[in-house]
Amino acid sequence: MAGASGTWRGFGAAEEGEAARGRKSSLQSSARGPEWRVLGAGKSLPPCLPLGLSLEPSAPEEGAQGGASLRTPIQDQFLHLSLRKQVSYRKAIAKSGLQHMVAQPAPTLALRSDSEREIRSTVDWSEGAIYGEHIWFETNVSGDFCYVGEQNCVAKMLQKPFSKRKCAACKIVVHTPCIEQLEKINFRCKPSFRESGSRNVREPTIVRHHWVHRRRQEGKCRQCGKGFQQKFAFHSKEIVAISCSWCKQAYHSKVSCFMLQHIEEPCSLGAHAAVVIPPTWILRVRHPQNPLKSSKKKKRTSFKRKSSKKGPEEGRWKPFVIKPVPAPLMKPLLVFVNPKSGGNQGAKMMQSFMWYLNPRQVFDLSQGGPKEALEMYRKVHNLRILACGGDGTVGWILSILDQLRLNPPPPVAILPLGTGNDLARTLNWGGGYTDEPLSKILSHVEEGEIVQLDRWNLLVEPNLEANPEEKDETATDKLPLDVFNNYFSLGFDARVTLEFHESREANPEKFNSRFRNKMFYAGTAFSDFLMGSSKDLAKHIKVVCDGTDLTPKIQDLKPQCLVFLNIPRYCAGTMPWGNPGDHHDFEPQRHDDGCLEVIGFTMTSLAALQVGGHGERLHQCREVLLTTSKAIPMQVDGEPCKLGASRICISLRNQANMVQKTKRRNSMPLLNDQQPVPERLRIRVSRIGMHDYEALHYDKEKLKEASVPLGIIVVPGDSDLELCRTHIERLQEDFPPCPSTIQSLFPQEGDGAKPKTLSCQKLSPKWCFLDSTTADRFYRIDRAQEHLNYVTEISQDELFVLDPELVRTQTVGTSPAMPDLVDVPSTPTRQHLSHPVSPSTTSDSRSEMESSCSLKDDVLIDAAKNNDFQKFKELHQAGKDLMMRDHSGQTVLHHAVKSGNKEIVKYIIENAPAEILDMAEEEKGETSLHLAATLRQRTICHYIVEAGASLMKTDLQVRAFSAGKRC
């Protein structure tokens, strides 16, 4: 920091001696003439504000400006005032009973040498935990300077590059060898606990700020309301802000903004105070063995009896205990993160949660599971749990809650990681984490509604009446789980899942790519479909629901998959029960009604499921008795096995408390001007491509410049994003498709001298909304959660959407930062886009094109039909187009599949564009994969699937069937 020379220091051990040495040091420094700057308006504050409240003169810090200044009477007065402040601060702390909040020495700190001090990357729950210890993780951030300053920086002194580490709890960055230098400037992390054994009668209930200097800071100063950004701030060594790592309040680093009384005031713990567990609740207790007390009681005769009592106490002793202070508005949160879920998302989330919360309320499930943490916090009133992982992680936590028998059981919220996540979808948390701000997620956890989730027991016993000849040596006699929360299924889906798991366990190195996993999964499913391995399922099962025998109905249906469903979602978001509507025999599905839905699937209904169809509704019941006569693949909440002939009883176990994500309208803060929400909003919609989003999403202004306007929508002021989506889709329908070479355009409003103009390229089906209101960057919003977000929450004067399949076209006048845009010299009118085209004109032009293609390239189709591979290859090398179609829309790949020539099929796949794999003919809407499956050409099916053909494409017959089922 420029010219800073006073250092805010924390009190260490032997506080009075430390104070005496501080006063002596101050006097010696004044005799030498220390470099002080007058702290006036616009002047900076001292550069280090660790735990502690004393101000002492010190040597100049990094980047000192102006050299050694002369002593003035004003500086002498300020020095004298600072010495008086030291004493007054210490007296104030002694009177207030806040000694625990002062930097306290750890009991074992004196026993550790600097060489033995380890660099911790996790929270230390042992007896030797150090007060104010940092939690380090490696970082490669280039713009952050070492926090210890140039004077103490080892890398600066040695002129060598060193790796950097960042503290998850207070976000300071230092070089790895500079971590020890933090002791010299006495900077500690925010305290996560307090010491027991305080002699104060009053227990401490407030938390002090933990002030940290920042060279870069988002947002605005709490005092003056101005921003912290400076011109040419990148690589600036000047400290611009002082912020609290608890409440996140920030001030300019000058006396006019940050005043001395801010040091003494209690911290509110910020926007998430209701879910933060204060460090005053977490006590480190001493070991029961006390040498002083034991020496006084040596004369007791019942030594053996006393030692026998002491043993169990020592076994139950824990270094930390929780002493909560009941507060009706608090909802303390425990966060459990599964780092194995969702790639590397879990590890990054732990670091972010430690910044927003107390690090001692964030737990890594790979370090022993959730049981110890839940036992420690079991007496905390209104406790809530956030499970970060998949549905299996949630089930694990719920099973531990069952074991501990907490009353009432704390409700569980979900932050979904990875894929699937049907339970998270059911409770409105979405199918997976994209990049929503964790601060927003914490608000949703706090404000979410508590709902119940039925949980079901699975009691398995062998079927002694089964035919011994049907016994399978590879089958097991028990299920992987005896409780399920989502579903229990048997048949086709379980067989595919089991084959995938067995293959992955046998060759784990081949399953390190999510895309390859999906391809293998799809190939296995298609192979089982062709083999019909589950077509005889109905012959080997007997199902009795609430005393009603469903076996005859199941045998008539001949399903290949049977599902007992507890929640509406299944198979990564599909809804197999659907909406019964006017069907009086069945009720809409609920996850808290104590009923299971029994659903059968044929292969046709399984295919229709992906496009909005549903299975065959069989029953809604409270108890099921399932009997199998042979080994059948089964899965419990995604965990597969092959179970031998058995009798399985399914019954209600209990109901778990869950947190359901809800809209936040009632809790939204009012704007500064207290204006009500307008009745109608007129808002411009702009599109951003994935390439620009990934490259520029930390630079909001550049990303706005790179956006492509789509048009203007008018919606009610309280509209959610689902309604906005329909308006945007309608906006797209207003413009007919046109070739990209024509680039029909119309101007947008309010874009200055060079207006942005709209291309005719429509949004892809995978587009999503972006939250543009946060200070640092744009964030994606999960499509499944659009009904929970209001348009006014994510946008200000412009609504941004992300199109992952945006085609980046470059035309004359188009800048690289503005894809698919041109500058138009004259103002085009809407007539350019809305000029009517007669159907006859369209059909004539199409017939002319088809006839010309037929005359030119029919020899290529003939070669494919006649199985003449050599001629086909020569025609293609001579310039014939592999993408041509005949009069019915069939491609050369369709004809090659019909003829069954594997060589021609393979040649087309290797040499034609990938689009040919999903091109459908006009009569039935069949792709080449549909045709190969119909003709039962298994090898060709494998070729097409492995090349990347979509398994979600449906022909016209499947679409007509699913539409009829919905009706």
Summarize this structure briefly.
It is found in: Cell membrane; Cell projection; Cytoplasm, Cytosol; Nucleus. This protein has 28 helices and 32 strands.
Low-confidence segments: 1-72, 85-116, 292-314, 666-675, 738-757, 809-856, 959-967
Main sheet strand line-up:
17-16-27-24-19-20
Cα-based radius of gyration, to the nearest Å? 34 Å
Structural class: alpha+beta
Query: What is the architecture of the domain at 456-654 at the second tier of CATH?
Result: Sandwich
Q: Tell me, rounded to a whole number, the average pLDDT.
A: 75
Largest sheet: 6 strands, antiparallel
CATH class label of the domain at 456-654: Mainly Beta
Number of helices: 28
Strand content: 15-25%
Quantity of strands, as a count? 32
Overall morphology: globular
* CATH fold-level topology of the domain at 456-654: Tumour Suppressor Smad4
How far from one another are the termini?
71 Å
**What percent of residues adopt helix (DSSP H or I)?**
25-40%
